[in-house]
Amino acid sequence: MRKEIRIKGITLGQGRPVVCVPVVETEKDQIIKKIKELTEKKVQMIEWRSDTFLGNTDPKQVQEILEEIRPMLGETIFLFTFRTRQQGGCSDLEEKKILYLNELAAKSGCADLIDLEFFEASRPEKEIRRFQRMGVKVIASHHDFSDTPDERIMRMLMEQMEAGGADIAKLAVMPKSPEDVLRLLELTFDIKVKYPDLPVVTMAMGPYGVISRISGEFFGSCITFGAAGKVSAPGQIQADALNQILDVLHESLIQA
C-alpha cells in the first residue's frame, strides 16, 4: 500500500485539485523572473518545463537556474519536467541526458516532483525507484496529442504506470468529440476507485476537454494545469479563472 502523498502541507488526491502553473519561458532571466512572480502570488504549484529553455543542452545552465530559484519556492510545490517532442514538448535530447537533468533537479533541493515519460524511458521502473531514493516523488506520464485511445488501452497505460511504482500516474489525451472526454472521465473515476492510494492526473486537451480541467474533484484527478500567460498545452485555462471555478465547485460539494 502506498503512503499518503503530502507535499508542503498539501495532500494530493484529497479535496480540491491543486492548480499547477507551467513556466514555459525560453531564456534564463525570463524563467527566473516568472518563477519569482508566481511564488510571490503564492500559487500552489509550479512546473518548470525545461524543454522550452533554450539552454537545456547545457546542464550547468539548468543547475544555475535551479540554484537561483531554490530560495524563492518556500511553500510552493515544484515540478521539474522535460517534455520530449514525441510527447508534445519542444526539445529532443538523448534519454541519458534527460535523466541527468532529472537527477540534477532531484538533488537540487528544489524539486518535490519529477515528471518521467514512462513509455519513452528504457527502464522506467528503475528510474522511478532511483529518483524516489533521492527524496522526490515521481509523476509517470503519457501524452497523446493526436487521439483519445480506446478505453482498454487507456486503462492499460494507467495500470502499467501504477505497477511501475509511480507515485502519481498522469494521462493526457486529445479528444475529437465530447464522447472522448466522457470516456476519459469514466476511466479516471474507475482507476481512482480501483487504486484509491494512487493519485491520478488526467486531462483531455483542446476545447472539448476544458471540462476535464475543472472536474477533478468529482472524477478523481488531483492536479490541473492553469496558465499564467503562455499555455503549455491546448485548452489550458488561465490560472486565476481556474482557481475561481474550482473554488465554486468545491463549495458546492462540501455543502451537499
TrEMBL record:
The pathway where this protein functions is: Metabolic intermediate biosynthesis; chorismate biosynthesis; chorismate from D-erythrose 4-phosphate and phosphoenolpyruvate: step 3/7
One MF term in the entry's GO annotations: 3-dehydroquinate dehydratase activity
| Quaternary state and interactors | Homodimer.
Which Enzyme Commission number(s) are listed?
4.2.1.10
Q: Which family does it belong to?
A: Belongs to the type-I 3-dehydroquinase family.
Please tell me which top-level EC class this enzyme sits in.
Answer: lyase
Q: Provide the binding site for 3-dehydroquinate.
A: 47-49, 83, 213, 232, 236
Q: Spell out the NCBIfam families in the cross-references.
A: aroD
> What Pfam families does this protein's entry cite?
DHquinase_I
> What function does this protein fulfil?
Involved in the third step of the chorismate pathway, which leads to the biosynthesis of aromatic amino acids. Catalyzes the cis-dehydration of 3-dehydroquinate (DHQ) and introduces the first double bond of the aromatic ring to yield 3-dehydroshikimate.
> Could you name the active-site residues?
143 (proton donor/acceptor), 170 (schiff-base intermediate with substrate)
State the signal peptide span.
Answer: none
> What keywords would UniProt list here?
Amino-acid biosynthesis, Aromatic amino acid biosynthesis, Lyase, Schiff base
Catalysed reaction(s) here are: 3-dehydroquinate = 3-dehydroshikimate + H2O
Going by the entry's taxonomy, the superkingdom of the source organism is recorded as Bacteria
Per its record, how is this protein called by name?
3-dehydroquinate dehydratase
